[in-house]
């Protein structure tokens, strides 16, 4: 089976790290590169963390630095209280050896879409600013991309930053509106389903013993993330938002979708809310409304437990 070519746009972030490492080790995925964006952390820290993740895996793929502010609204506070000041919980900041690509994220996205025309799946798991800028940079981008799988939004689940808005949309609603209104195939993996996939501290402890290098890192990074979930959601575990989006690309059988055009509220108290768009002329988005939560959780743990810990990375820090 030919692996699916995937580019992850990410604001690493603890669950982003889970998603990127999963993508690196699932043989059904060919990770072609990462682009960084603000959200959980600043774009500078997101870029550094994305470089560190790539270095950790030993993959020789580019990381391109993304936008440093939203398209229109003022920059919002980054979610350091969820992911820690440096983005990986209490894990100290990495100093990656590698440097970012020479081109900015939106140009890199267009370059990868040209290189892999018709084959590339874009998987944004942070705010959608880079994708919106890429659509502006190349007006034919939507026709070159195989599909887009967005971790973000919600239809009936409400928000996790405000009662209405999910974090990735809330950070840049104007960019999200551009992404959901472009003429490309979009799947939205939102809180309607990601709130149902929870991994426990015991899951990550088991992962750490099976895969000391990668599982050990994720277990360390997840401790801060567990504390946030205990305090805010009252759960003994963590939501697997970003890994669920990546897994849905190569295991769509785990997910059921409704088809509806999606719009984004851009002002007032409901800013950042994703809605069933009622206007004309907008393509349907596949919105995930059902999921086999345990299948997703098991898939994540199985792939990560089989991660080649002996894989030599370009750096020794982990
Ligand atoms: O709302 C959850 C999303 O916001 C996830 O992508 C998480 O990493 C944060 O970016
Ligand atoms: Ca994220």
List the keywords.
single chain, 318 residues, alpha/beta, Inosine-uridine Nucleoside N-ribohydrolase, Chain A, eight-stranded mixed sheet, two-stranded antiparallel sheet, disordered C terminus, binds alpha-D-ribofuranose, binds calcium ion
Given the C-alpha coordinates, what overall shape results?
globular
The CATH superfamily label reads: Ribonucleoside hydrolase-like
Q: Ends: how far apart?
A: 32 Å
Poorly predicted sequence stretches spanning 5 or more consecutive residues? 310-318
Briefly, what CATH class?
Alpha Beta
Task: Catalogue the ligands.
Answer: alpha-D-ribofuranose, calcium ion
Instruction: Give the count of structural domains.
Output: 1
Named CATH topology: Inosine-uridine Nucleoside N-ribohydrolase, Chain A
Category by helix and strand content: alpha/beta
Number of helices: 13
Secondary structure tally: strands: 12
């Amino acid at each position: 089976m030919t692996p699916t070519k995937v580019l992850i746009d990410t604001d690493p972030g603890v669950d982003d790290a889970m998603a990127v490492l999963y993508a690196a080790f699932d043989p059904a995925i060919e990770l072609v590169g990462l682009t960084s964006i603000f959200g959980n952390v600043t774009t500078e820290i997101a870029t550094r963390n994305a470089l560190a993740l790539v270095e950790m895996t030993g993959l020789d793929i580019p990381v391109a630095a993304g936008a440093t502010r939203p398209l229109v609204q003022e920059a919002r506070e980054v979610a350091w209280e969820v992911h820690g000041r440096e983005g990986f919980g209490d894990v100290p900041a990495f100093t990656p050896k590698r440097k970012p690509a020479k081109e900015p994220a939106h140009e890199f996205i267009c370059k990868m879409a040209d290189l892999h025309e018709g084959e590339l799946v874009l998987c944004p798991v942070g705010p959608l600013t880079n994708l919106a800028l890429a659509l502006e940079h190349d007006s034919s981008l939507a026709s070159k991309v195989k599909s887009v799988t967005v971790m973000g939004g919600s239809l009936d689940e409400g928000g996790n930053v405000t009662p209405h808005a999910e974090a990735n949309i809330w950070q840049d609603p104007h960019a999200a509106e551009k992404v959901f209104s472009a003429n490309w195939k979009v799947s939205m993996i939102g809180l309607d389903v990601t709130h149902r996939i929870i991994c426990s501290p015991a899951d990550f402890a088991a992962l750490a013993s099976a895969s000391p290098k990668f599982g050990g890192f994720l277990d360390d990074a997840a401790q801060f993330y567990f504390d946030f979930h205990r305090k805010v959601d009252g759960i003994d575990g963590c939501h697997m938002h970003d890994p669920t989006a990546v897994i849905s690309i190569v295991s769509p059988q785990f997910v059921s979708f409704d088809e509806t055009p999606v719009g984004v509220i851009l002002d007032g108290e409901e800013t950042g809310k994703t809605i069933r768009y009622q206007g004309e002329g907008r393509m349907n988005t596949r919105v995930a409304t059902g999921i086999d939560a345990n299948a997703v959780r098991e898939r994540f743990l199985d792939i990560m437990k089989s991660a080649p810990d002996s894989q030599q990375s370009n750096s020794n820090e982990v």
